[in-house]
Amino acid sequence: MAVHVDLQAPPEVLRQRLYDGHLLVMTKLPSVAKFVDHARQQLTELFAPYDPEHAHEHFEPAAMAALLGPWKPRFIHDERSKKLVRNIIEEAGFTAEETHFDVPKPRTSFPVGHLTTGVAFAFPWHRDVWYSAPHMQLNWWLPIFPARDDNAMSFDLDRFNAPVENNSADFDYYRNNVGRLTTAASVKQEAQVRPGATGHHPPNELVVLPAPGQVLLFSGAQLHRSTPNTSGLARYSVDFRTVHVPDVLAGRGAPLADTYCSGTAIRDFVNVADESRFDEATVRSIYGEPPADAMLVFEAPKG
């Protein structure tokens, strides 16, 4: 496996490399830089008059959670946020009509000792597929300010297709949608089940540091974690996910070495061209019948 920078290849080759465990950095997509500017502007306004990277020095964890809780959904559903994501996907060479994406999610990582739960959850070793993500999911990760090796994200490539002990069997996507209703308020303890590896301490970790204006792509089956933030600075990033419609229908994707969760997140994805979702009958034919009372797609409380 390798880290490829601006790999020149057809989209189907790029996808297969990612399904096989390779990582890809794209440095020449104009809309990534525009997205970074968009996010920086909102963060600067949110924390004014303080520098966003030092905002944790001025807000206690509870106050920080209260500030970020309402802002994150505003950013996620901002029409410009979604438009820029669509532009990024198309600039990367993926066909809009054949690609579904989910909303861009802002992530915050504060130094150890500050807020690390709820809206600023520090993810342990995990694979996104343990969260019921489809195995053909591709993750796109964009730092908003310069990331460092002591506040970024690390990978265990040696375990890409090798099982590790984990608690993904405890995770049900539909129950999690209900649990998300209380996530923003979590300050001292997590309100959700968060799948993670058990006692995993790999001898080799790979940290990839794209610059602001660049984007890192990797498979949702990659084993990765939030690096414990010892930098003294807050880290802000945004990630979103895509699936290729023909690959979903054909069952093509990354290997599943150790995934035991239930439910599926496939209904969260909308088409890049027209925002249509997968047909429900198609979803059920691939992923099975959900419980009658399941919250199939997360619904944020109104008001």
**What is the class in the CATH system?**
Mainly Beta
Rg (CA only): 18 Å
Structural class: alpha+beta
Could you estimate the helical fraction of the residues in percent?
25-40%
Number of domains: 1
Average pLDDT, all residues: 93
Entry summary:
The chain is 25% helix and 15% strand. It has 303 residues and is an alpha+beta fold.
Structure description:
- The chain is globular.
- Helix 2 packs antiparallel against helix 4.
- Strands 1, 2, 3, 4, 5, 8, 10 and 11 form an eight-stranded mixed β-sheet that branches. A three-stranded antiparallel β-sheet has the order 7-6-9, with no helix packed on it.
- It has helices spanning 11-19, 30-47, 61-76, 79-91, 173-179, 245-250, 280-287; strands at residues 3-5, 23-26, 99-101, 105-109, 138-143, 153-155, 206-207, 215-219, 224-226, 235-244, 270-271.
- The mean pLDDT is 93.
- Helix 1 (11-19) links the parallel strand 1 and strand 2.
- It has one domain (3-287): Jelly Rolls (Sandwich).
- Helix content is 25%, strand content 15%.
- With 303 residues, the protein is an alpha+beta fold.
Keyword list:
303 residues; alpha+beta; Jelly Rolls; three-stranded antiparallel β-sheet; Phytanoyl-CoA dioxygenase
SSE inventory with pairings:
Elements: E1 3-5, H1 11-19, E2 23-26, H2 30-47, H3 61-76, H4 79-91, E3 99-101, E4 105-109, E5 138-143, E6 153-155, H5 173-179, E7 206-207, E8 215-219, E9 224-226, E10 235-244, H6 245-250, E11 270-271, H7 280-287
Parallel strand pairs: 1-2
Antiparallel strand pairs: 2-8, 3-10, 3-11, 4-10, 5-8, 5-10, 6-7, 6-9
Helix pairs in contact: 2-4
